[in-house]
Amino acid sequence: MSRFDSHSRIRALPLWQGEIAIEPLLGGISNECWLITDASGRHVVRLGEDYPFHHVFRERELMTAQAAELGGFAPKLEYGEPGVMVARYIEGARTYEAEDVRANVARIVPLLKGFHSDMPRHVHGPGFLFWPFHVIRDYARTLRQANSRMSSQLDGYVQLAEELEAAQIPLPIVFGHNDLLPANLLDDGARLWLIDFEYAGFSTAMFDLAGLSSNAGFSVEESDELLRLFFGREPDLPLRRSLAAMQCASLLREAMWSMVSELYLDAPGTDYVAYTQENIERLEGALEAYRSRFERSGT
After folding, report:
1. Integer CA distances (angstroms), 172 to 51, 64, 79, 176, 206, in order
2. I want to staple 58 with a disulfide (CB 3.0 to 4.6 A). Which of 82, 115, 179, 291 is the partner?
3. Rounded distance between C-alpha atoms, residue 249 and residue 279, angstroms
4. 70-82 core/surface letters (b: 16 or more CB in 10 A; e: else)
5. Which residues, including other chains, have CB under 8 Å from residue 100's CB and lie 6 or more apart?
6. pTM, full prediction
7. Which of 253, 217, 197 is nearest to 30 (CA)?
8. Domain 94-294 CATH superfamily
9. Domain 3-88, CATH homologous superfamily name and number
């Protein structure tokens, strides 16, 4: 959608009071975000469309955002229809970066545990299961069918996913966010908020823990502390191995997300090929550390 079309669509929304000012917000590479100022204050508009190739459906995202507001996890949703959401802008809130995540793990863990346990009381409609290993296998099918430039690598990626899946330990099903980039955490000084629910759905806690830690560049010691805080006990070897394997899976899934996006998305200013390569390099580093720690050591 062009900027002109986006502005026209935003101006036509029925909730504004008086004249509006429209400013772009940086961040999303599969949706558009805009900061709107009217007589009642400031608001964030999020525009998107269904992306079946990414398992993203805006009607479900809207329902989840409404549920997250009811649960007290997300900003007030002021307007919604499939493809359009308007949330109240939280004045004074800052978007987290990787170092903020690492410095605030003790605050993030209760937010995450509450989201996992409370969101099932508020979501409705057909349940959506987000299992990263299924996503990886489905991305491989999509990439093969489209004759992706990465086609020759796909058998290896699927085999790797199966290896990492086998390292997972049984955990309860929870409602996960499943996209815990640092920028999806907001801090207003008094509390934390979650935003961006494109991929939210039922899963296990391990993918959120892996996404949070891998996206923020946790060390081994920081990952152990995350497990300690989340599970309330000293992490044993299977738990550590499960997280480390899921951290690799998180990076593999992100790399394959980018490979699919190379084919089907065109966000202005986004170099999907470079983003693919960045995540492949991060995956290679994480996988080397994982195998050195848990396989070559014999543990």
Report:
1. 29, 20, 34, 11, 10
2. 82
3. 11
4. ebebbbebbebee
5. 94, 182, 185, 187
6. 0.94
7. 197
8. Aminoglycoside phosphotransferase (APH), C-terminal lobe (3.90.1200.10)
9. Phosphorylase Kinase; domain 1 (3.30.200.20)
Maximum pairwise Cα distance, the chain: 67
Amino acid at 198: E
Tens of pLDDT along the chain (299 residues)? Answer: 455 589 999 999 999 999 999 999 876 677 889 999 999 999 999 999 999 999 999 999 999 999 999 999 999 999 998 889 999 999 999 999 999 999 999 999 999 999 999 999 999 999 999 999 999 999 999 999 999 999 999 999 999 999 999 999 999 999 999 999 999 999 999 999 999 999 999 999 999 999 999 999 999 999 999 999 999 999 999 999 999 999 999 999 999 999 999 999 988 788 999 999 999 999 999 999 999 999 865 55
